[in-house]
């Protein structure tokens, strides 16, 4: 009995499972059929709607064609124009967007977007003026030697310092000389005789030795040879113990005031040696001098030299004969009009540079040694020029910011470009290469550069 009951229960369970599976399959098939019918119904509805809309459009078009044939062509043209404008606007917007993207993608140390004003280079004639600073010094060509015509010992020296001013006929020293005393004794002996020829010869010899007619007359009156002979200045002017050192300032920039110290033109060389072999700083009382030895030089300072130095940038334009205006610090309201007379290369303090020389008249003596002057040169130039503020200097490189485009907001797009400059003054700069007259550049180049940026060009 128990086994029979278990067998019946298994059949009932299998039949239940079978019914469940079949029911599920029937439900799935019914849902699919319903979706297909609904989809077909929608398609038929859409087709019907399209057919109705088409019939209505055809009727409207037929009515419009019958009522106004010309109006239809005008509307069609306007519609095409509107469509074209929309397409153009879309293209412009796409181009502007691409340009904005391109400009913003460029490196900021080469391309700058700014609302700064732009200017155009100018072609024309302009006088470029630049200045150089210098000083007044002696004209070596006007130096006059003051030698001693006979050997002896200096008992008294009245010339105490360099640049001392002496007048012609002024006593400069007293010399003790046994040799000249011997010639004076011979003159006195011959003068006591009646031989006029010998007397004239002895007198002529004393004159050639440097004695004046007054001194000889005094000897004749006293009948005695003096202990010392006075030497007088044969010229008028400033005393120079070292003529080659009178051309400039010493290394400290101050004129030497001590006697015989000279002016070594800013070098560390040893003191100059006079042609006789005597150092220029050894002329003192009590020293011995030999025959024909040069004691010092005298310069009348009636014409002077102006030594002017220009910058390395401008000295290449300086040439001999170029007109120049010289202004002295002593009287700036009275400029001198002269010209460049010499360009000389100077090596000083381990540096090589060029300096210009100008000649200035000084008959009134208003110009003083080592007084400062300013020389201004004006050169007419016809070229492409821009303001000085439009050039930005990167060491030896000069750049300008050239406008390469405009953003949709109206800002200018600038890019750096290297240019080669020529003359330059306080207002304008000459452009030799790198820029055309039809290009626009930034007015103030310095505002487009950051002090911490390394600008590419």
| Class of secondary structure makeup | alpha+beta
Sheet with the most strands: spatial strand order: 3-12-15-14-13-16
Mean pLDDT: 76
Unreliable spans are 34-52, 59-96, 247-280
User: How many domains make up the 3D coordinates?
Assistant: 4
The radius of gyration computed from the alpha-carbon positions, rounded to a whole number of angstroms, is: 54 Å
What fraction, in percent, of the residue positions are helical? 25-40%
User: H/E order of the elements?
Assistant: HHEEEEEEEHHHEEEEEEEEEEEEEE
Number of helices: 5
Distance between the termini: 109 Å
Bulk shape: rod-shaped
Report strand %. Answer: 25-35%
Beta strands, count? 21
Largest sheet: 6 strands, antiparallel, barrel
Pfam families: 3HB_CusB, BSH_CusB, CzcB_C
Domain CusB-like barrel-sandwich hybrid: 146-239
GO biological process, one term: copper ion export
GO molecular function: transition metal ion binding
């Amino acid at each position: 009995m128990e086994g029979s009951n278990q067998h019946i229960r298994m059949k009932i369970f299998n039949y239940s499972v079978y019914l469940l599976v079949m029911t599920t399959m029937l439900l799935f098939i019914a849902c699919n059929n319903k979706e297909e019918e609904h989809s077909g119904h929608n398609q038929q509805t859409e087709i019907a709607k399209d057919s109705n809309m088409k019939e209505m459009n055809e009727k409207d078009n037929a009515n419009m064609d019958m009522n106004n044939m010309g109006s239809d062509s005008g509307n069609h043209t306007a519609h095409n124009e509107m469509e074209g404008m929309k397409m153009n606007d879309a293209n412009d917007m796409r181009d502007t967007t691409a340009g904005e993207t391109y400009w913003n993608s460029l490196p900021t140390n080469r391309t700058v977007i700014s609302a700064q004003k732009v200017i155009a280079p100018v072609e024309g004639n302009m006088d470029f003026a630049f200045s150089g600073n210098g000083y007044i010094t002696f004209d070596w060509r006007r130096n006059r030697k003051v030698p001693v015509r006979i050997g002896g010992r200096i008992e008294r020296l009245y010339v105490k310092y360099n640049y001392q001013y002496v007048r012609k006929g002024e006593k400069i020293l007293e010399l003790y000389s046994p040799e000249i005393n011997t010639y004076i004794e011979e003159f006195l002996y011959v003068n006591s005789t009646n031989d006029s020829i010998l007397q004239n010869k002895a007198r002529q010899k004393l004159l050639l030795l440097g004695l004046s007619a007054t001194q000889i007359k005094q000897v004749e009156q006293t009948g005695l040879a003096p202990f010392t002979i006075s030497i007088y200045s044969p010229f008028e002017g400033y005393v120079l113990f070292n003529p080659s050192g009178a051309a400039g300032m010493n290394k400290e920039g101050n004129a030497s005031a001590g006697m015989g110290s000279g002016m070594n033109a800013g070098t560390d060389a040893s003191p100059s040696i006079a042609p006789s072999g005597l150092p220029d700083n050894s002329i003192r009382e009590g020293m011995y001098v030999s025959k024909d030895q040069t004691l010092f030089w005298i310069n009348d300072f009636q014409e002077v030299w102006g030594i002017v130095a220009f910058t390395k940038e401008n000295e290449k334009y300086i040439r001999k004969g170029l007109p120049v205006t010289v202004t002295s610090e002593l009287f700036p309201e009275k400029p001198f009009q002269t010209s460049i007379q010499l360009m000389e290369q100077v090596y000083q303090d381990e540096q090589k540079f060029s300096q210009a020389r100008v000649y200035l008249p000084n008959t009134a003596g208003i110009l003083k040694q080592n007084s400062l002057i300013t020389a201004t040169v004006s050169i007419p130039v016809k070229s492409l020029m821009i303001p000085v503020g439009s050039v930005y200097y990167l060491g030896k490189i000069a750049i300008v910011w050239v406008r390469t485009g405009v953003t949709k907001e109206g800002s200018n797009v600038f890019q750096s470009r290297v240019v080669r400059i020529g003359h330059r003054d306080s207002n304008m700069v000459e452009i030799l290469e790198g820029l055309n007259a039809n290009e626009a550049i930034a007015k103030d180049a310095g505002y487009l550069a950051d002090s911490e940026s390394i600008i590419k060009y």
